[in-house]
Amino acid sequence: MSDRQEVDIKRLREDLLGVDLSGGDLDSGTAVGETEIDSVTGLLTRTFCDAVMIQQYKHMKRRGDELFAIVMIDLDEFKFINDTYGHPIGDDVLKAWGSSVLGRFREADIKGRFGGDEIIIMMTDYKSKADKQPQDEEKIIYKDLVKKAREILSQGEKTKDIPPEQIEASVGMAVWDGEESLKEVIDRADKLLYVQKQAK
What we know:
The protein is of the alpha+beta class.
């Protein structure tokens, strides 16, 4: 992670949680770790993800020389999977999607569980190119995530009986214009996600 992408996570944790982390007590299963990491997906919790994105947004706005992108991902027909195969299987699907997101995006990108079966990613060093529109990037992200999630699911004993065609997602992506608030970019990405979902 480059200096310009780095977020002071230690300081942010202390500010949010009122905990002195100088001892490095951040092992999985501790109170602090559970506050930061969603136990099902392995991604950041909504509260902690929001705080990290806000800090990163302020940093990037202050610098003024980088663009970020927000990617929203929502599982299609997740209620059907839960109702048909049971909630433990639904959790396995969410774990697979969490693994897919962690495997697809860079360490510098901020990845969190936005709510239910919806995931948010802040691509912290996204640079759009004239020959590659954001919609093209969205298609690449979508196809890659679906492929990775299916591969992970096919290896799991509990989830191997789910037909591959039922592992689908909708993706919305918005690139910061340099002026918008963070909320405005997230809202744009979320609206694009639901436009794609309704078009299926």
